[in-house]
Specification:
Length: 464
Amino acid sequence: MKEKTIFVCDICGYDNLKWFGQCPQCKNWNTAKEVRQMKRVKSASDNQRDDDTFEALFAKREEPLIRFMTRFDSFNRVLGGGIVPGSVSLIGGDPGVGKSTLLTQIADRDITVFYWSGEESAEQILLRAQRTNDGSLDRLFVYNTNRLELALEKLSEEMTGSSTKIPSGSHPLLIVDSIQTMRSDEVDALPGGVVQIRECTAALVAYAKQHRLPVFIVAHITKYGQIAGPKLIEHLVDIVLYFDGDADRDLRVLRSIKNRFGPTNEIGVFEMGEKGLQEISDPSERFYDASANDSGNAISVVLEGNTPFVVEVQALAVSTHFSSPRRLSKGVDQERLNLMAAVLSKRLNLPIENHDLYLNLLGGLKCNDPGIEFPIAVAIYSSFFDKTIPPKTAFFGEVGLDGKIRGVSFSEKRITELARLGFRRIYLPKSKANAGVIKKYGDVSFIECTYLKEALTQIFDGRS
Ligand code: TYD
Ligand code: MG
């Protein structure tokens, strides 16, 4: 095919024959890059096989979703109940968080793993696997490569050839580590760029569907927390996973933000240790420190999907040297911090605008649950006045702009979890719905709150 030149948006991958100043798709300016193209770049829709005729839905049902399980129960759950043949999953995360370790540990008796590595040498991977994978490693095959077409050719020999390494009954699986190191000969662009990432991902998706081979693609994330070549590969794949962690505490959290084969509300919690990653089956106890008694630390219970987690909110309020104070938040959306600061300023007359505010969730958890708002306000207030919170005390509830504490879903689950872990005083929104569960725990004091101002006065009254 004749060579031609196209312009591709460096951020979202939109392409056009003509140059564009503003990308019509993602609306960013000056992101058009000129790319020489040997062949037409495949679009995601090319991966879909066209049916010959209309087919009744029940006819499709004859091919049920057969899944197979890895050694990690929580990994299976995050995937929606095991690995679906032909599914393509993207796993993003900071360098060093443990993506390669996690995927290597999947190699197991019944799973034959083909591991393309463009980053580490085969020796490195095998050495690590010897430490992290109990038992035999004869199901792990590493191939050092960054050339997509060649690697696919080699893989095809295993998938369809007569002298295959895949024993019958064993499930084959491909790991691509990482997508940023792969390049396809079909486009003339640098590896790691949007064009190569898109081309390689599209080719992998097509291959996965054609051979019903599950593929895991490792992607590094940028400093803005997005997968490099951002949204565009997320659209191409079936499942998008993020692996997060807090380097200090060796805790790692796996979550899915997109899953065509299941819900996205399960998370998996792991601990990185001497022998790689271990699953943590009762993770709730890991995200707070019951012994700590410093000002600025408030304990709460949040829901991640269906699972209640006890978490520790840490806030630091320090008088600022900047004309506009700093607001930094880890684990909670910054907007939520701004909102709580505004409510404290307006409803409690706290001179918060003269203070920098830092917020952190212990253990690297990320939380979107509105029930974290009341504890955030408590933690900020505690740090602001340098007053500690009584031990064995926890808080949950949403805070309205009017300074009222509002009810949140799953109160009963939250209360049960706090009681189970030995909390003795729970500040919660006033709600008739809680009466039943409150009665169940006679030895816990429940303080039902309506206004943030009153609640804070009550919590810190007489405390130093
Ligand atoms: P790795 O899987 O290479 O991270 P990624 O692929 O996401 O970049 O993990 C690297 C880190 O994990 C490294 O800092 C060392 C640590 N680690 C352990 O603590 N124990 C282990 O058994 C392994 C394999 C790694
Ligand atoms: Mg790696």
